[in-house]
Amino acid sequence: MNIDYAEKIPNNVDLASNKTLQRALEHWQPEFLQWWDDMGPEGTSRTEIYLRTAVSVDPKGWAHFDYVRMPEYRWGIFLAPGEAERKVNFGAHKGEPAWQEVPGEYRSNLRRLIVTQGDTEPASVEQQRHLGLTCPSLYDLRNLFQVNVEEGRHLWAMVYLLQAYFGRDGREEAEALLERRSGDPDNPRILGAFNEPTPDWLSFFMFTYFTDRDGKYQLCSLAESGFDPLARTCRFMLTEEAHHMFVGESGISRVIQRTCEVMTTHKIDDPAKIRSLGAIDLPTIQRYLNFHFSVTMDLFGADVSSNAATFYSTGLKGRFDETKIEDDHLLTTASYPVLEVRDGILASVQAPALNALNEKLRDDYIRDAASGVERWNKVIEKAGVAFRLRVPHKAFHRRIGPLAAANIDPEGNVVSTEQWTANVERWLPSDTDRAFVASLMGRVVERGKFANWIAPPARGINNQAADFEYVRFN
Ligand SMILES: [Fe+2]
Ligand SMILES: [Fe+2]
User: Fold this and answer.
1) Which residue, 34, 311, 414, 455, is most buried by CB atoms nearer than 10 A?
2) pLDDT for 46
3) Distance from the CA of 4 to the center of ligand 2, in angstroms?
4) CA-to-CA distance for 113 and 76, rounded, in angstroms?
């Protein structure tokens, strides 16, 4: 399963033996590079970055670190090894051999799943393209670029599936993935959260913590797919995704640590005073958290969804940890609780489990996301500061599904429009908050220096020191 870097397109799928596919991907490659040039990290074509590159899909030691100019990064096609005699593990085809080709009757649904996942990858690169100009350190700049090149590779992963298994319409979808643009009103990215701007580094860390984690849950569900090439592709993507969430979790943790240092050194807890010393007050961090959490909640889709039921019953998209769950893996008779607004309060009602699969995945995600927030609270506790961050109620600030029709506060109370308007600035970042955070975003690129609003990391990347020269400007 070693990756062939002698090829024009590095791969471990023996691309050389399939000339038609190789030609199609070699035709797409310059278009991808053009997109990278137009929409990738701004003004970086000559910058050398200490990046990791996948050299094998073996879980141990797949990474190689060296200085790379991003346009020369070796984007390629890497699948996790196949499992001998793998089966479809859920839905109506449970027990049948996993599909090595697209099952004809599910073709359009499968293509839709792949395109929707694929669309998020270039979208996040577009959202983050200006951040390099305001990086808080070389270490953080390197991490941003690592995330960016890997999101680019995730696009390759989905485009490979489209080109290899879907013929002409797959090629058309591959082109369209390079044509949509995050936030473009005429040709936006498919999912809402991927059209929101990522204007500052607090947003970036929140995005990589919360929204890349949605990516993890979607990829885990697709890694259960009965369509084996999709499962194998997603399994390898997950190994890269872990670093993105690390960047988010450790990034926020360092912001919190710095804020707490300012609070305890100066014995202050007034947000205005904390801000005047150039740190981000904890209530502002909470409001950013509320925003990114709620926008990510919507990515899981409607609480009750017939599409989700179809994707599952037809064996295309499983549950998180499908094969570890002990039940019939058919779900035709099971039920699952979802929320509804009834008589002015949120009520839990039972829905058919098949239709509630988005809600189930959302709940799995929340448990995981909330545990990291508790780790942030440990940092606050350790500093002796009396404040706790928390994830808002899952119904807060929803824009998708029936809950979007109600105003729901972070505690899960249904509130009137007047109450919402009166309090929204306590719950979500205001223009003033965003302007304050933006005002901190100066560019720090001196070796070993960190912006005032963020603590240095406990350790560097690949056992390097925090003051290592992670990026070289040429
Ligand atoms: Fe990704
Ligand atoms: Fe990611």
Assistant:
1) 311
2) 92
3) 24
4) 21
Cβ pair 121, 155 in contact under 8 A:
yes
Residue ranges of domains in the chain, CATH in brackets: 15-472 (1.10.620.20)
DSSP state string for 33-55: HHHHHHHSSTT-TT-EEEEEEE-
Q: Which residues surround ligand 1, an ion (CB under 5 A)?
A: 121, 151, 154
Residues around ligand 2, an ion, CB closer than 5 A? 212, 215, 241, 244
How far apart CA 309 and CA 332 sit, in angstroms, is 10
Instruction: State the distance from the centre of ligand 2 to the C-alpha of 235, rounded, in angstroms.
Output: 13
Angstrom distance (rounded) from CA 285 to CA 385: 15
Each residue's pLDDT tens digit, 321-349: 999 999 999 999 999 999 999 999 999 99
The gap from C-alpha 258 to its chain's centroid, in whole angstroms, comes to 25
For the chain, the distance separating the N- and C-terminal CA atoms, rounded to the nearest angstrom, is 36
Report CA(76)–ligand 1 centroid distance (Å). 14
User: What tokens were used for 188?
Assistant: 């936006």
Contact 428, 397 (CB under 8 A): yes
Per the CB < 8 A criterion, the answer to whether 25 and 163 are in contact is: yes
- Closest ligand by atom to 209 CA: 2
The Cα 379–Cα 257 span in angstroms is 6
